[in-house]
Structures are given as C-alpha cells and as structure tokens.
Amino acid sequence: MDKSFSDLTAHHQTLIDTIPDIIYFKDCEGRNMVVNKAYKDFVGLKEEEIIGKTDNHFFPPELAAHCFESDMKIFTERKTLSFDEEFTLKDGKKVYFETIKSPLFDEAGDIIGLVGVSRNITERKQTEEQFKLISNLINQSNEAIGIIDPSTSHFLYVNDKACNNLGYSREELLNMCEVDIETSIPNKSFWDGHVQRVKDNGHEIFFGDLRRKDSSTFPAEVNIKFITVQEKSYMVYVVHDITERKRAEERRISEQQRFTQDMTDNLPCIYYLIDIDGNIIAWNRKALESLGYSSEEMSGMSAMQLVAPDNKDYAINKIMDGFNKGESFGEVDLISKDGVKKPFFFTCRSTYKDKKTYLVCMGLDISERKMMENEMIKAQKLESIGILAGGLAHDFNNILTAILGNVSLSKNTSNPGDVLYRRLSDAEKAALRAKDLTKQLLTFSRGGAPVKRVISIIEIIKESADLVLRGSDVRCNYFMADDIRPVEADGGQISQVIHNIILNADQAMPHGGTINIRCENVTVGSGDPIPLKSGKYIRISIEDSGIGIQEEYIPKIFDPYFTTKQKGSGLGLATAYSIVKRHDGLITVESKLGVGTTFNIYLPATAKKVVLRSEDKSFPVFGIGKILIMDDEEIVRKVAGEMLSYLGYRVEFAAEGSEAIEQYKKARDAGNPYNLLIMDLTIPGGMGGMEALKELLKIDTDVRAVVTSGYSNNPIISEYKRYGFKGFITKPYNVIDLSKIIHGIINKP
Predict the structure, then answer these.
(1) Model confidence pLDDT, tens digit, residues 321-333
(2) Angle CA(15)–CA(17)–CA(22) in degrees, nearest 5?
(3) CA-CA-CA-CA torsion sign (174, 180, 185, 186)
C-alpha cells in the first residue's frame, strides 16, 4: 500500500467508518486503496478482498466501465465532479447513487489518486419517480388541483388544469396565496377560521367564485382535504368549474318557472302567490284578464288593494288563517281596475320556499253562479207569492166575469145615447182595469203560461211605448236593426213587459227627457257570462236618462210588491220579470244615480215565419145552437148563460165534470146533442174540464169544447189543441169576446 494512503488510513479509518455514505480512495490505476465500512457492506466483501483491486473485480462491466470513465475525467480535469450512478443488484433490484469524486494531490501537486463519496439515493429516486408519475397523472385530471400551506395559504403545488382555469403560469401561482383567487375570503382572519373548520372536520365542500388573472370570475365547487405527512400539514384543493352546471341549473329553473307560469296561465281560475307581508309576488294571465291590470301594474301590489272595501277585514283573516293554519277558503269580492266588484271563491294553501313562507291563492270567478243563485231566489220568491196571487186572481176573475159579463150585456142592450150607456161604459172600463190587475197577478202565478205565436217584436215595442208616452214630456228614440229575427211569444204579455218598463222610465224623468230603445240580434255562447242557454236571441235595450236607482235597491227591483214610489203596486217589474222568464229569456238592469237606467231584455229567436192575423171586429157575432156551460161558480154560470142567450144560443148548465158527461150522453142519446161545451178547467172538489173532456172523447171523438179558466197549473190554455179543446177563453170575458170564440168554433166545418 502506498505510504500516503497508509497514513490516511491510520488517521481517518475510524472516522470514515462512522459515515453511512460509501467512501473509497483509489490510486491513479483505479485500484481501491482505502474503503469504509459502508463500502464493504455494499459489495459484501472483506477488506482484503477489496484493497488493491479495481471495480472490474466486483461491479458489472457496464458499471465498472462507467466508474472508470468518471475516474479518468477526474484525473484529466483535475477538479471535483459529481456523477449519478445506477447499480443493479444480484436480485435484479436497481440502486441509485449520487457520487462526488475529488482528485488527491501530493506535496508536489501531482495527482496520486482520488477520493469518492457515494450516497445511496435509491429511495429518493423512487420517490421522485413516484412524484413524477403522480404529477403526470394529476396533470391529466379534468379538475384543478392544488396543495396549499395552511399556515400561509401559499400554493405548494398546482396542476396544469389549475393554471389553465385561472390563467396563470405555474411559477406565478406558486408565488401566490389562496386568498388571491378566492373571492369569499376577504382577509387573513377569515382564512384562519376557514383552516380551523377544515382541520376540525377533516374535509369541507363549499361553493364560491374564483378570480382569474384577467379579473373575471367563475363559479366553482371546492373540495378540501386536510392531510398530515411526516408531521407537516397540507390542504389539498380539488376545484371543479361548475359554470355549465350553473347555466344548466339556471336553464332548469327558468324552464321550471316557465312551465309553472304556463301551467298557472292555463288554469281556469285566477292565481296569486302572496308573501308574508301580503304582497303579490306572482300571478297568472287569468288574474290580469279578470281584473284588467297589466303585469307592470300588478307588480308590487298588495293583495288588499284588490279586495272590496267591505271585504277587507274578512280577507285579512282568511290570509292569516292560510299562513297560520296552512290553508283557508271562502268567498271574497275583488275590485277590478275599472271599479267593478266581482265575487270569487278562494282556496289558499301555505308553501315553503327558499326558507320563506308564501301563500298560494286560487280564486274561481263565481259571478255567473251568484247571478244564477239570485235568479233562483227571485224565482222562488215569485213561486211563493204566485201561489197566493194565483188563488186570489182565480177567485177575483170569477167575480169579474160576473161583473164584466153583466155590464157588457147591459151595455149591448142599451141605447148608446143614454146616460145609462155612458155609465155602463165607465163601469166596463173599471172592470177592465181590474182585469189588468188580475192579469199581472196571474203572470207570475201558476196560471201565467204564455199563449205563444210567432210575432215580429218591433211593432209591439213601438205600439207599447207610444201608448205609454202619449201626452208625456218624454221623447222616445228607436234604433232597430233591419234584420230582427222573429220570436215565438205571447204578444200581449211582451207588450205588458215593454209597457211596464217604459212607464217606469217615464216616471223616472218627471221633468222630461229621452228614452232610447234599441233592438238587435245577439248570439249567446257557452262561455258568455249570461245565464242563458246557448243560441240566438234578440236583445231589447231600454235606456232612460232619469234619476237612476240606488245600488242597494237594484237586487230588489224585481221582487213582488217592492216599490220606492208613493203610489204603485210594486207588481210592474215583477210581472215583467216573470213574463220574460216564462219565455225562457232574461231581463237585467244597470243603473247609476243621476245618470239613468238601462233594462236589457233577451228573448229566444225563432226560425219560424210570422203569420199575419186579420183585425177583430168590435161588435158581437150572433148565432144559433145548443151550448153546455160547466162551471162550479153559480154566478159565472148565470152571467155566461145570459150572454149566450142574448147571442141567440140555447144554454144548459153543469156544476162539474161528471154531471156534464151525463148530460152530454143524455142529449146525444135523445138525438139533440150539444153543439159546444164551455168547460171550466179547475173545479175544487170535483172533476175539472181536462178530465171530463178525456171521458167525453171516448164517447164522441167529434165533441167540441172550449176551455176557460182564471188560471192554470198546466199549460192547457196555451196548448189547448193538444188536450182536445177547440179553443180557449180566459176569465173575465164579455159578450164580444165570448161571441167571437163560439161563432168561430160552431160554424167551423
């Protein structure tokens, strides 16, 4: 061994043996002169097996050649150099070394060898390789990933996706902190609290906006994991850009809102969403259409602004019930933009959204239902009073028949120039006025069925109006369409309707004025808010410019005996209402104080043609024949018999149906039959005219009978032919009326 190396070993062997790195001294021939314990352990040889030998003796050829090459480089360049060396063990495992070699000089400055120090960096190399692999994998991720020092919020590592998302280079980000990009972290104190929450929970997920290099932001879902490696803490951030998710959510919400709006817009009722303060925050199209507001006007309105003043307390209670109890319902009157009050039936249910409670309110317009209910109530009132009125009218008509019959009979047998004739004429007029009164009673009683025929309404309107306004200061204007459809109606009753309404209009204008009467064709559809069957109608509008009707009186004006006049029976409008109702029509009223009143009359139109009738003569028609009068009232039998005798007929009597049948049989069997029977329809406690005629028709199909009555429960008077009668005459009647009916039937072949 060279003396210089021997001196080195003596002084430093113990020292170098304590060093874990491999240390060796070589001469200029590459022979190992001194090695430490780590070297001997690595090659697995004893010192005497190593000293004096080159690397070729125990290293693979490639590694031995690499070592020789690096040795020569040291000798050539005469300076310290470092080298990475790879060594494969016998079991195939690779070992990596980081080697530093330095030349050794003698006192003369000549190189006598070298010293090498090799550190085993296999573990570090493997770690680096693993980190490189992991880094490559992380860089392939579609998520932005970063590792942050929790104490400073500095980035320790970021992947490519993080750089791309934020617009920074890796070098820039590694010199930045989390607080530089996180908009929801305003200061260091907030950051410390954030770190503590993550540390306590081990992880956290939050949603926030991250700031890019160009100052723009994007929404992100941030997953944070708190980890500790070799007593060092880290926060691993995985950031997912949720811009598209947010857009999709916004689209979903928008579509859901649009769907909800479309769904509510298609509801047949109005819809409101009310917040806890009573403000309307959502509505449907029906709500706008029903109340006449635009969306701009509805926005910001309070629910109470839509409620009628007299309904506000009730509506407030219902809204509070909805919030407190979860649901409520009831009828509430709303006011439209133009001031019209409309009834709605509301159901309200509370709902919870975005940590707030709201009230969903849906209201069905019940105007038509309320109108129909009012119509039903009116009809029930008329029915009730009609039962009483019909009975009174029936009895009164029997009395009037006796009075009018005797007066007309006396008048026809008197000299027109006598004072007696004049007085009889006055008495006849008084009886006829009484007849008009009973006619009104009968109109809305059970016996008021109209005797219909196809008529043109225009002449009836003009004649009735002109008759009422004769001598009045009120002028009448007519606006009649050229193609007014005919109607199938009782001309006398319709004339009475026009008469009563025009009379009211005239009395509403004591200082004169104008009445406008319009007549037009209309069609009612299933969706129209008019309580009529779909079909074709005519509408008569009678408009005055009088004092008007107070609002609280309007629902009552068609009630029997209701009147605000000092003089008046209260039957005029009730009669008009009943007549129109029995014609399957409708009468309505609109009125404003100081402006005037308009009545609208709807009557069903018909496709039938109008049949013109010849005018009646105003004198009695005499005849011959045998007539049987059947009536339970003796006074009626008596006066009718006298009138028929006056007209030239032979008369016999029966008090009820069975008696009339017996007399008819006897007369027929005797060869002296009756030419005509006048039969009262209603016989209290006995057989009436309809039942008696059924039996008579079994005996004689050619029997001729006229039905008479003060009223009727059945539509016999208007449909007399259907029941076998040849004609009808209503009580009371006079000589002329009786003569025309009888003459037309007896003399008809």
Answers:
(1) 888 888 898 899 9
(2) 115
(3) positive
**pLDDT at residue number 746:** 85
What class does CATH assign to 247-365? Answer: alpha beta
- Tens of pLDDT, residues 522-563: 999 877 778 888 999 999 999 999 888 888 888 878 876 566
CA distances from 15 to 3, 36, 37, 68, 213 (A): 19, 9, 10, 26, 56
CB 343 within 8 A of CB 311: no
Any idea where the domains of the chain sit in the sequence?
Answer: 3-126, 141-241, 247-365, 457-604, 626-746
Assigned superfamily of 3-126: PAS domain (3.30.450.20)
In terms of average pLDDT, the best of 39-48, 84-93, 130-139, 565-574 is 39-48
Residue 635 in 3-state DSSP? helix
DSSP letter for 92, please: S
Q: How many CA atoms lie within 13 A of 687 on its CB side?
A: 16
Record the tokens describing residue 571, joined without a space: 């039957």
Q: Distances in Å between the alpha carbon of 556 and those of 549, 583, 588?
A: 11, 21, 12
Strand, coil or helix: 270: strand
What Cα–Cα distance (Å) separates residue 1 from each residue in 30, 35, 142, 274? 13, 13, 64, 105
Helix (H, G, I), strand (E, B) or coil at 656: coil
Report whether 517 contacts 542 (CB < 8 A). Answer: yes
What is the H or E stretch that residue 173 is in?
helix 170-173
Angstrom CA distances, 414 to 408, 409, 423, 738, stand at 10, 9, 11, 19
- Predicted pLDDT at 151: 83
Kindly tell me the burial class for residue 641, based on how many C-beta atoms sit within 10 Å of its own C-beta (0-12, 13-18, 19 or more): buried
Q: Which fold has domain 626-746?
A: Rossmann fold (3.40.50)
Give the pair of three-digit tokens for residue 400: 């009037």
Find the angle CA(698)-CA(700)-CA(701) to the nearest 5 degrees: 85
| Token reading at 570 | 């209260």
Distance CA 655, CA 657 (A): 7
Domain 457-604 architecture: 2-Layer Sandwich (3.30)
Query: What CATH number has the domain spanning 141-241?
Result: 3.30.450.20
User: Strands 586-592, 650-654: parallel, antiparallel or unpaired by DSSP?
Assistant: unpaired
The H or E element that residue 354 is part of is: none
